[in-house]
Write a structure and sequence with these properties.
The complex is a heterodimer of chains A (513) and B (137). Chain A is α/β, with parallel strands linked by helices. Chain A has 13 helices and 26 strands. In chain A, strand 6, helix 5 and strand 7 form a beta-alpha-beta unit. Chain B has one domain: Rossmann fold. Helix content of chain B is 40%, strand content 17%.
Chain lengths: 513, 137
């Protein structure tokens, strides 16, 4: 049985700029060309057409093309669509692009555009979106800063079960908050409603589940945690004063090794804190030798007075070039830094090493291990002036950036509120809508070459036990990249098939000839 | 109606919203350009590009997202590779490689996209007609 496509076109001359004669010509030409398979319903406007979609079935059609002229009415498929109609079988075509410069519609081009859409739609298959109920009820907060704690408290106060995954420095007790006392998060994977977070706890790999994930800062992904007896202290500087250390021989403060020179707006406030902390340590006589390792940036001149005060208190400064950054030897408190003045490499043995919370002194391997759905651009978001409050466009994973400098909880709460509201709305909904169009693999054709597994940006393709590729439908976003790369053409996505595209291309040629 | 025929494969994410923005701003498509929507330009195969030429198109534009900001991460990068491969192939068979072009558009760069499309149309219109046009069925 051939599917019947119904074409709906507005005969309103205000939007199309065409006279009644022209519209009627389009109607007659379309009905001729399609040999009775295209039925045309005249309607006032695109919006009206959507409302009258339920009348499509009257003409014996099961799918519709709506030609839209009105520039105001270009909202796509979302509103006013009757629920009984499958959105996969309705195509809304923007015709205003094809009119001429005076805004007058062109008969041939209108005809071509509509015929093209009808050609594609005649091979389309109905698809249904799937609702996946949340498997977990908890929201996980990954992060260790005061901002993370504030976020967890806010989430709990909104009645959500909250898990906070952070290093050992805090001990907090509150209703509905579960503190997972570990920071070395190894991976994050899954779909909204059912995320899996794995981390190492006392050397053993453990995992937990969450419906939504809130990522705070970057420190939460530190790969190696210093052993308990070590005096290496990677700490938020604002908490430096609260940590009793006792008098030691050497204390070294290192600035944010991950920041770039250009990030003066980020670096300068962080430096201020660094210098203040060093100054406090010197004044309280916490160590015999106190050194600050910081890079040579012009913007530091803004803090000249602070530098001076710290220097008078007995703090020594070692400056390094941005190209030759200091190295912190793994597991030891030995810092090697190339001094700009002497032109030599200096080795500093620190009894206590203090670094800002954003520093990852031990080269992280987590980026390879970590998987966050690709909407989250890790590199772009974690650097540069965007480091403020930020929200992810990816479903279920929410990003909250750095505070940039120490802030009180009261200051942080308003910044977090919009993210918290989004999470609350998501949790209240309670289900995740998976994409209707997902790639499907014909297993008999699959040669097991791993090409789709390597290509898929969402990691939805996996190999199964019999070494054939498999698409996890819940993860698939319908981007069709795997279809094109598959050498044995085993993958296909409904409503974007090869015959469909060929037919659409052919339809656009026919009108020209 | 223009004599040449250009197919534009447009990704339905950033590139299509660029077109929408352009149409709201009152711009119109060049006469010979026909739009074929794609979920992502990474869908395009080299064989599809060849088939489009043999079906009677004089030129092909592939409009994808910006490469470091692709909606589906890798799609526009893959598409650019395939377009370059087709250009090499055209050079080998003594056809004009200018007949295929990749344009990267952000969702705000509608005017730029239209300008590039118009330039492409002019370029293709100046080329000699394809000898096999309409001969292959």
């Amino acid at each position: 049985m051939n599917p019947k496509v119904c074409i709906m076109l507005s005969d309103c001359s205000a939007c199309s700029g065409m006279g009644k004669a022209d519209t009627e010509r389009i109607v007659s030409l379309l009905s001729q060309e399609s040999a009775g398979r295209v039925i045309l319903i005249k309607s006032l406007c695109g919006d009206e057409a959507r409302k009258s979609l339920s009348s499509v079935a009257v003409g014996g059609c099961d799918r519709a093309v709506i030609g839209q002229w009105c520039p105001a009415d270009r909202t796509g498929k979302a509103p006013n669509m009757p629920k009984s109609i499958d959105p996969a079988l309705v195509e809304i075509v923007d015709l205003s692009l094809t009119s001429d410069k005076a805004g007058k519609g062109n008969v041939e081009r209108t005809l071509g555009t509509l015929a093209q859409a009808a050609a594609r739609l005649s091979l389309a298959e109905p698809l249904k979106e799937r609702k996946i109920a949340f498997a977990s009820k908890a929201v996980a907060v990954i992060g260790s800063s005061g901002r993370a704690v504030a976020a967890a408290k806010l989430l709990a106060s909104h009645g959500m079960q909250t898990k906070i995954i952070m290093p050992n420095s805090h001990s907090m007790k509150a209703d509905r908050i579960e503190v997972i006392d570990e920071s070395a998060v190894q991976c994050l994977s899954g779909i909204p409603g059912n995320f899996r977070i794995c981390y190492t706890r006392k050397g053993a790999e453990t995992e937990t589940d969450a419906a939504a994930v809130l990522l705070v800062g970057e420190r939460c992904f530190a790969d190696v945690k210093p052993p308990k007896d070590s005096k290496i202290m990677v700490t938020p500087l604002e908490q430096f004063a609260e940590r009793p250390t006792g008098k030691v021989g050497g204390m070294v403060f290192v600035d944010d090794l991950n920041a770039f020179n250009s990030e003066a707006d980020v670096v300068v406030p962080a430096w201020h804190m660094l210098l203040e902390a060093a100054k406090t340590a010197a004044k309280n006589n916490l160590a015999d030798n106190i050194a600050v390792v910081a890079r040579d940036v012009k913007a530091a001149g803004l803090l000249e007075l602070v530098w001076k005060e710290a220097a008078e208190a007995g703090v020594k400064f070692i400056r390094y070039d941005d190209k030759t950054r200091p190295k912190i030897e793994k597991g030891e408190n030995l810092i090697s830094v190339k001094d700009l003045v002497l032109g030599e490499t200096l080795y500093l043995q620190a009894d206590v090493l203090v670094a800002p919370i954003t520093t990852r002194p031990w080269e992280p391997v987590f980026i390879e291990k970590l998987f966050v759905p690709s909407d989250w651009d890790f590199k772009a978001r974690s650097r540069g002036p965007q480091r403020g409050v930020d929200q992810s466009s990816c479903d279920g994973v929410f990003l909250v950036g750095y505070s940039n400098f120490a802030k009180l909880t009261d200051e942080v709460e308003p910044e977090l509120s919009s993210t918290i509201v989004q999470i609350a709305a998501m949790m209240r909904q309670g289900y995740h809508i998976a994409k209707a169009a997902v790639a499907e693999i014909t297993e008999a054709k699959c040669s097991g070459c791993f090409t789709c597994v390597r290509t898929c940006p969402y990691r939805a393709a996996e190999m199964n036990d019999s070494w054939k590729a498999e698409i996890i439908a819940d993860k698939c976003q319908g981007c069709v990249n795997c279809v094109a790369v598959c050498p044995s053409k085993a993958i296909e996505l409904k409503n974007c098939t090869r015959p469909q595209i060929a037919k659409e291309v052919a339809a656009s040629m026919e009108v020209v000839q | 109606m223009s004599k040449i025929n250009i197919i534009a494969f447009v990704c339905e994410n950033h590139a299509l919203s660029a077109l929408r923005a352009a149409s709201i701003a009152g711009e119109t498509l060049p006469e010979s350009v026909k739009i074929v929507k794609m979920p992502c330009t990474g869908r395009l195969e080299t064989t599809q590009l060849i088939d489009t030429i043999t079906a009677g198109a004089d030129g092909i534009i592939v409009v994808g997202c910006l490469e470091d900001n692709c909606f589906h991460d890798v799609g526009s990068m893959l598409a650019r590779g395939r377009v370059n491969r087709i250009k090499d192939l055209f050079k080998d068979i003594k056809m004009e490689p200018e007949r295929v072009e990749m344009i990267n558009a952000a969702s705000v760069s509608g005017a730029m996209l239209m300008l590039k499309m118009r330039q492409f149309e002019d370029k293709v219109a100046a080329l000699p007609a394809l000898p096999f046009k309409g001969a292959i069925k």
